Amino acid sequence: MNYWLMKSEPEECSIDDLARAPNQTVPWVGVRNYQARNFMRDAFALGDGVLFYHSSCPQPGIAGLAEVASAAYVDATQFDANSPYHDPKSKPEAPRWLHVDVRFGRKTRLLSLAEMRAEPRLQSMRVLQAGNRLSITPVSTEEWRALQELLAD
DNA sequence: GCCAACGTTGGC
DNA sequence: GCCAACGTTGGC
């Protein structure tokens, strides 16, 4: 069992959108970074815990919990010329981009980025390191446990 | 809107 | 393979 933090822009898909989605599950399409893709392809497992993080918004932070609901499979948007995620260099016979499905767990209070930065037990979190831009980052068991406490209220 | 940090691209 | 230019991310 592994744990992950996944960033989503709430204007595109918020924790509420995830809760309202069919089967409370969304295909996590649009990842166009090789490191993030490789996490999904090589390290994700069904049932892995996900921290659902709201980014690029007025109140960035963790907004809920979710889980990995599928293995990695081909992201069809890369071949769709009308999609913002279209990748003209990716060929159907050798798809570059994959994604997983993510299923809603529960909504939590918003644990703000500022609060995360101030919490001693979270200092090692990859998402908090200077210059980090990855939309998917691993979370250690210790970090996950601390977060469960912080989100319990 | 700014800007630092980082990834990608493409000429050489 | 190097590396400058460019694009993107994402908090502020």
UniProtKB/TrEMBL annotation:
User: What CDD domains does the entry give?
Assistant: EVE
User: Could you tell me which residue ranges the EVE domain spans?
Assistant: 2-149
Q: Which Pfam families match?
A: EVE (PF01878)
Its domain of life? Answer: Bacteria
Kindly list any coiled-coil regions of this protein.
none
Question: What is this protein's name?
Answer: Putative RNA-binding protein with PUA-like domain
